Model the fold of this input.
Amino acid sequence: MLVAGNWKMYKGPAETAEFCLGLREQDLDGVDVVVCPPFVSLAVAVQVLAGTEIAVGAQNVHWENEGAFTGEISPPMLRELGVYGAIVGHSERRQYFGETDETVGRRTRAALAAGLFVIACVGETEAERERGETEDVLRRQLAHLEADDNLVIAYEPVWAIGTGKTATPEIADAAHAFVKSIIDVPVLYGGSVKPENAAELMTHGGHVDGALVGGASLELESFTAICRAAIPS
Ligand code: PGA
Done:
């Protein structure tokens, strides 16, 4: 199981250092743990977590190695910093920053080629689910991605992100099975994962390989509780 914390636009370097100092004291054997702070906090996270099994990821990455792309960060820049991977195509990037299935594919391919690990996000909106389009949307989003040893997909139904509305374990498992029928890689569930629902979401049905956690990854206690829920008993 893999548990990744997506901090979104929270925690500058000072708060990141404090969180990571606490995290490195935890015994999290048996689960792969990744934290994804904002770009400006990556260096301190890498530094504080050095020598542990906990990996540091970015929240986005560009497809070119360098160039006139104001505001973007390239795969070799992340590698140079000691960053292990990146989230790509999060629904907030699709919704607010013009990310498309095509740019998600380009970012993913470039990051993988540079040796980074990628968590590529897919998921339907509430309206799409209500119209019965969930599988069409997932198929379209996955069409730009190819299986790779360093790729995992995060299935994050948009209606469950930051809303407190979690997919039921049955809905999550069915969507994961569908994703895996298209692309044979591990699939994380994301969308209002909390310590209270994590174990059930991750164990029901057998198609869920971990979690991508937003809000509940910002507090050490709730994040580590979710990590522990992923450790096989
Ligand atoms: P949430 O966010 O856990 O706060 O719903 C998940 C995500 O956006 O990755």
User: Anything to note?
Assistant: The CA atoms of residues 124 and 133 lie 8 Å apart. Strands lie at 2-6, 32-36, 55-58, 85-88, 117-122, 151-155, 187-190, 210-213.
